[in-house]
């Protein structure tokens, strides 16, 4: 049974967001918490695709992140994925709106110009979130995989560690 706590994680498909996803799944399991993976999408698209297509593409990116990280959605936990039309920082702060939530983010290694123009998602979340914010670097994922490989244990994304593709247990 899931307690009242939630672990919210920002997902965008980058290596650092996959590292954040690993950490969030670990924290949700340890805390017996609801896992809330969030992917934000914007209607600013130079191809002028329909909004429904942009939302569907974002959902596929979220599903792909779980496929890459675990071979599908992890079993044994309650997951409530959110696909939100918003700027990432705003979407994550809104999703992690309770003081007892945990917000997990990838470190996002974008260039100085992009950060200057769009700001840092982690910086926005640290400044505005009402809960604890944990920022994970891609190296944390690589270190975890290296340690697992050296120990001879099955990799986290090995068959049998996943519930199967595209089937999260959702809570509404």
Low-confidence stretches: 113-118, 157-172
Topology order in helix (H) and strand (E) letters: EHEHEHEHHEH
Shape, principal axes of CA atoms: globular
What is the CA–CA distance across the termini? Answer: 15 Å
Quaternary assembly: single chain
The count of strands amounts to 5
Strand content: 15-25%
Q: Which structural class matches the secondary elements? A: alpha/beta
Strand order of the largest sheet: 3-2-1-4-5
Reported for the largest beta sheet, the result is: 5 strands, parallel
Radius of gyration: 16 Å
Helix content: 40-55%
The helix count comes to 6
Average pLDDT number: 80
Word description of this protein:
Helices cover 43% and strands 16% of the residues. The protein has helices spanning 15-31, 51-70, 88-95, 112-118, 121-128, 138-151; strands at residues 6-10, 34-41, 82-85, 102-106, 132-136. α1 packs across α2, α1 (15-31) packs across α6 and α3 (88-95) runs parallel beside α5 (121-128).
